[in-house]
């Protein structure tokens, strides 16, 4: 059996040349205030510009039949939404929808101008997102109200709060929205 060997560095055997203390490397206020300022004033606006300039989110106009309505959907839910729309006679098998759709392939940060342009003048918009609480729906509601855009917004009032949003779940939620606006 081997005897225990003391560690080379410990509270008894200190480092000969430890790294210096740098207050600015702490991860709590007030050190983070500058990072937060940069995030709000430079980084998020730059990310929003990049998203818009590179078309990362997709605005699908649909066939114009119900251009006065709109659906905002997380990118990963698009196929299930498209199938649910098809079951309601509002889309075809080739991805053509009777209702304009804004596909959010990037959900953070959201692009306020893009959302405001999409929602303006619509009778109603449905937000399709997984998870709870409804972060995307809440953020869209806030940005619309700040711009005095009074488009009615629906989401988790019609779509299940929890669980996978497959075709069946979306179809059920969509049925209430369709009954109300179509």
Number of strands: 5
Which spans of ≥5 residues are poorly predicted at pLDDT below 50?
none
H/E topology pattern? HEEHEHEHEH
- Quickly count the helices: 5
SS strand fraction: 5-15%
Q: What is the share of helical residues?
A: 25-40%
What is the residue-averaged pLDDT? Answer: 93
Give the spatial strand order of the biggest sheet. 1-3-2-4-5
What are its keywords?
alpha/beta; single chain; 5 helices; 182 residues; 5 strands; 5-stranded mixed sheet
Q: What's the short story on this structure?
A:
The chain is an alpha/beta fold.
List the topology elements:
Blueprint: H1 33-53, E1 58-60, E2 69-74, H2 78-87, E3 101-104, H3 112-119, E4 124-128, H4 135-146, E5 153-154, H5 167-181
Parallel strand pairs: 2-3, 2-4, 4-5
Antiparallel strand pairs: 1-3
Give a structural overview.
This protein is α/β, with parallel strands linked by helices. The protein contains five helices and five strands, in the order H-E-E-H-E-H-E-H-E-H. It has helices at residues 33-53, 78-87, 112-119, 135-146, 167-181, and strands spanning 58-60, 69-74, 101-104, 124-128, 153-154. A five-stranded mixed beta sheet has the order 1-3-2-4-5, sandwiched between helices. Strand 4 (124-128), helix 4 (135-146) and strand 5 (153-154) form a beta-alpha-beta unit.
